[in-house]
Design a protein that fits this description.
CATH architecture of chain B: Orthogonal Bundle
Oligomer: heterodimer
Number of domains of chain A: 2
Mean pLDDT of chain B: 91
Number of strands of chain B: 2
Distance between the termini of chain A: 37 Å
Number of helices of chain B: 14
Largest interface: A-B, 44 and 34 residues
Helix content of chain A: 25-40%
CATH class of the largest domain in chain A: Alpha Beta
Strand content of chain B: under 5%
Order of helices and strands of chain A: EEEHEEHEHHHEHEHEEHH
CATH superfamily of the largest domain in chain A: P-loop containing nucleotide triphosphate hydrolases
Number of strands of chain A: 10
CATH topology of chain B: ABC transporter involved in vitamin B12 uptake, BtuC
Structural class of chain A: alpha/beta
Radius of gyration of chain B: 21 Å
Order of helices and strands of chain B: HHHHHHEHHHHEHHHH
Shape of chain A: globular
Strand order of the largest sheet of chain B: 1-2
Number of domains of chain B: 1
Largest sheet of chain A: 6 strands, mixed
Strand order of the largest sheet of chain A: 6-7-8-3-9-10
Distance between the termini of chain B: 24 Å
Amino acid sequence: MPDPVLRLEGLRKNFGSLVVTDDVTLDVMPGEMHAIIGPNGAGKTTLINQISGLIPPDEGRILFAGSDVTALPPEVRALRGLARSFQISSILPGFPVLENVALAVQARDGSSLKFVGRAAEETALNAAAMAALEQTGIADRAYVRAGELSHGEKRALELAIALAMKPTLLLLDEPMAGIGREETERQVDLLLRLKGQLTMVLVEHDMAAVFALADRISVLIRGRVLVTGTPAAVRADPQVVTAYLGEQLE
Amino acid sequence: MSDAALAATNKTRSLRPPRGIVLPTLIFLAFALLPVVASLTAKQYLLDVGARMMVFAVAAVALDLLVGYAGLISFGHAAFVGLGAYAVGILSAHGFSDVLIALPAAIAVAMLFAWLTGIVCLRTKGAYFIMITLAFGQMVYFIATSLAPYGGDNGLTIAARNTIAGWPLLKSDRAFYYFALLCLLATYLFCRALVVSRFGRVLRGAKENPTRMATIGFGVRRFQLVAYVIAGGIGGFAGFLLANLTEFVAPAYMSWQQSGELIVMVILGGAGTLDGALVGTAAYLLAEEWLSGITENWKVIFGPILVLVVLFARGGLIGGLNAFGSWLWRRSGHA
C-alpha cells in the first residue's frame, strides 16, 4: 500500500473550553478525493486551517508527503505542494484576475526578490496563469479586476489560483457554497476531471456533489471523526444517518 | 481577436498602475528650472526651498513604499533620516568628510537600524506597528540628545559640505541643488521600478490579503522586512542630503513630529502613487513657507486644509488632480 499524502495523527484543538478538533486521525491516499462532511460547527474549516498551517493544533501531528509539517508556516507548506481554497473567497480584489493567478505561479518560479522588470508583463508567468484560468473557465475575465467578478467567478478564480500552484494536495473548503445550480454542475464537472490527477480533501455541504465526487468520506461530529468509509458504507451507517445524514437526505 | 477579449484588453490598460509620465516630467522639469527662476527674479531663497523639497521628497518617496504599497504605517521614518544625517555629522567631526565614505555610511547605518528594529516591529500589526515604530524612533531621538560629544540637544555644526573624491563639488548652493535633484530622480526611478517588479507585486499583494499570499507560498513578513530595510536605507540617504544641505545635524531631525510630517506629506499628496509623495512634499513645504509668513501658528491654518484635502480629494492631491483632469477631458467633448 502506498504512503498517504496526508496523515493526521491525534490532532486536537480547543478554542477556550470548546473542543473543535478532538483526536482526529486520518489518512488521505494519493489520488484520492476525500470528503469531510458534518453539521455546521463540526470543526471542518478549523481542520482545514490546521492542515494548511493557518492555525496551530494544540496536540498531534500533521504529516504531508511523508514529512512532519506541524510546525511549518503556511507558505512553506504551500511551496511543498499544499494548496487550498477558502470558504469565503480569498482573492486580491484590487489586482486583475490574471495577476491573482500569476502570483501563485511566481511563488514557485525562481526568486521574488527581483526589484527590476515589470512582473505583470512576464510572459511565462502569464501563460501559466492563463492556462489555469482556461481550466476553470474564466479565461475571458483575465483582465478584469478580481473584485468585480461575480460570486461564482470568484470561486472559479480561487480554484485557478490553487491549480496554478501545481499542488500535490488540494484542500477545498466548500467550493460550492453560495453558487447557483448551473455553476455547481460546472464545478463538479471540473473536479471530476481533476480527480485522480491530484489528491483532494473536499469539505462540502452539498451532499449530491459529495456523493458524486468522493472516493471516501469522513463524517465529523463535534470535532470527532465518527466514521470514515466509502460513500456507500457511509450512507448506510446507522450512526451517520442519526447524527447527520438523516436530515440531509430527506 | 473576439470582442470580449478586445474589451478585456482595453480594460486592463486602464487598470494598470498609471504609467503616467506627464506629471513626474513636469515636476522634475520644474525642479530643474527653479534655479534659473531664482536667479532671474533674484530670489535666492527659492533655491533653498527647492533643495529642502527635494531632500524631503527622497524620504517621503521611501515612506510611500511602506505606507502606500506595503500598507505599513511607519511612524518612525524620521529616525532613518536622522541616523543618516548623524552619520555625516559624526564622520565629519572626525575628519571624514567625503561622499565616498559618508554616503555609504549613512545608508548602511539606517539599513542596519531598519533591519534590527524591523524584525521586532513586523511582529506586530496595525496600531501596534505604528506605536512600536514610533517608540524606536523616539529611542534614537533621545540617544541623540544625550550625545554630548556631538552637541547633545543643541546639535552639531558641520564644518563644510562633503567633498566628492576630494573635490569640493557641492560647495556652491546651486551645485548642491542639482546634486540633490539627481539623487531624487534616482530614488524616484528606483522606487517606480520596484513597485511593479516581482518584489513590488508581492508587497502589494500582501497589503491586500496577507493570508492569501501566505497560502500561495509567500513568507509575507520576510518581504516586508526587505521593504522596511530598503525604505530605511533611502531614509538614510535623505539624511545624508539633509546634513549636507543645512551643514548641521540636530536631534530634531528624528523627532516624532518630523515622522508625522513625513506621513502628512505622503497622505496629502496621495499614498501609493510615488508622484503623490513628490507633490505632497512640495505642497507641505510651500504651505509652511507661505503660511508661516502669515502667522507663527501656521498649522492652525494648515490643519483644516489637510482635513479638507483628505475628505474631498480621494487619493490626496494626486487623486484630486486626476479627477480634475478627467473632468476637463469630459468637458472638452470626449466621451
